[in-house]
Structures are given as C-alpha cells and as structure tokens.
Design a protein that fits this description.
Strand content: 25-35%
Radius of gyration: 39 Å
InterPro entries: EGF (IPR000742), EGF_extracell (IPR013111), Teneurin (IPR051216)
Shape: rod-shaped
Order of helices and strands: EEEEEEEEEEEEEEEEEEEEEEEEEEEE
Pfam families: EGF_2, EGF_Teneurin
CATH class of one domain: Mainly Beta
Keywords: Disulfide bond, EGF-like domain, Repeat
Protein name: EGF-like domain-containing protein
Structural class: mainly beta
Strand order of the largest sheet: 1-2
CATH topology of one domain: Laminin
Helix content: under 10%
Length: about 260
C-alpha cells in the first residue's frame, strides 16, 4: 500500500488520511493531513468533490453568502441564494450575482418593486451601484437631468422626466421643484407677469400663481403703469382723486386734470 495505508485481509488497501488509489499512492488535493481541506470528498484519482458552497481544486474556497459560516454538506445558501459561485478565471469561489443583487455574497438587494409600473432594479430608471444604492443620473450627460429621484429612482420630477421643472428650475430629491427667479407654480411652468427677466417690471411682487401685487402707485397686470402724480401716496392723483386699475385718475368733485 505504498507505505501509506494498511493492507487488509482481502488484499485491498485502507489508505491513510490524505491518500487514495488502489495502492494508496495518490495524494489527495489539499494540505498534508487535510485532504480536500476537509470541505469535500477525495476521489480515487486524487481530485476533490467539494461540498455544497465550496470551490477550488482542493475545496479551500468558501463561496460568500448570508450563512457562510454554516456551509457544510448541503446546508446553507450559496451566494445567499441570489447568484452562483464561479471559479472563472481562477477557482477563488467568487459570487456572480443575479440581476438586482450586489455584494460579495449577493447579500445586498438593489431597490426595486417601489414603482407600481416597474419591478426592475432602480425602477428601470437608474443603475444599481456595488453597494446596492441607485444612481438615478447614470449615463446622463453632465448638464442633462434624468428626471427621476428617490432611493429607487421611482419618483418622477414635476414637469415630467423629459421636461424637468419645465426647464425653469431644479428638481429636489422628493421630485418637487425649486423654481428659477421669475417662474412660479409647482412645475415652474408659469412665468411671472412682466417677464422672468424683470418680474412685475420691478414695481411689485410676483405671487405664487405668477400674478403681480403692485406697489401702491403702480397699476396694470404687470405693474407697468405709474399713476399720475405718483409714486408717493400723497402725490398720487395729487391727493385729489383715486387711481383706477388702468392708471387713470378719478378726480374728486371740484378737481380736474390728468393728475387732478
């Protein structure tokens, strides 16, 4: 038995630990005294049949997974049950994760199933990073907004993904808009009266609905008309009349003229 086993009465060999073959001349894969790293069965040709969850010619590599410490025999979940343990290009026991999963042992799940119309990773609107977080801007040019927000890229920006904030604002993480100066309404679709460059002609405040609240001596929807005699209140219509919405003085009895 090649001095590596015991010859039995039936003239067969009972090999020492770590050796195999009819005459015990074949060394099992693995370290001396640890055939197949104790993680597999040594076959008659010296090769190893690894237990479930182990890889490598000597079964030394443990496939990562949620229950990696209990990978013995057929127990445990290889690659967390979400991937396969691949030995390419070297038998290192690395996990190749299924779509939608990340992590050394495929233990991280990409955000999904959070958008009613889409169950794919990152709701189909982003890229799942190695740490299983979503990059909603992946693949977009630096100056182009994808139009999607939220942890799973499930929130569409107001105005729509193709017209984010109507092109006049910045989309926040909750999908709401912060409008540029001179624009109003939820999706920044309303330009202030008088124009965005000079809201209310500089003579009033642009309200949330885009209309103007004019200063006391100004009239018209865009605060473009100065009341005669203005702009100070005592001089409006010379203090002898009322300036109407069109900027015309309605004079008190006994007073006439454009500014009364």
């Amino acid at each position: 038995c090649s001095r590596k086993g015991l010859c039995l009465p039936d003239a067969t060999c009972s090999c020492n630990v770590g050796f195999t073959g009819p005459d015990c001349s074949i060394k099992c894969k693995g370290e001396v005294g640890k055939p197949c790293s104790f993680n597999g069965v040594c076959l008659s040709d010296g090769s190893c049949a690894c237990y479930y969850g182990y890889r490598g010619d000597d079964c030394r590599f443990l496939c990562p997974g949620q229950d990696s410490m209990v990978f013995t025999g057929a127990s445990g979940w290889e690659c967390s049950g979400r991937g396969t343990c691949d030995s390419f290009p070297l038998p290192l026991g690395a996990c190749v994760c299924n779509s939608g999963f990340r992590g050394v042992g495929c233990e991280l799940e990409c955000p999904s199933n959070v958008h009613p119309a889409n169950t794919s990773s990152c709701s189909g609107h982003g890229y799942c990073r190695a740490d299983a977080t979503c990059d909603c801007q992946y693949g977009m040019p630096a100056n182009v907004d994808s139009g999607w927000r939220g942890g799973g890229c499930q929130v569409e920006c107001l105005g729509g993904a193709t017209n984010v904030c109507s092109g006049h604002g910045r989309c926040l993480q909750d999908g709401n808009c912060t409008c540029d100066s001179g624009y109003r309404l939820s999706a920044c679709q309303r330009e202030c009266d008088g124009g965005a460059a000079d809201p209310c002609n500089g003579n009033g405040n642009c309200l949330e609905d885009g209309t103007c609240l004019c200063e006391v001596a100004y009239r018209n929807y865009s605060c473009s008309i100065l009341c005669p005699g203005g702009p100070l209140p005592p001089k409006i219509c010379s203090g002898h009349g009322v300036c109407d919405v069109e900027g015309v003085c309605i004079c008190k009895s006994g007073w006439i003229g454009r500014a009364c």
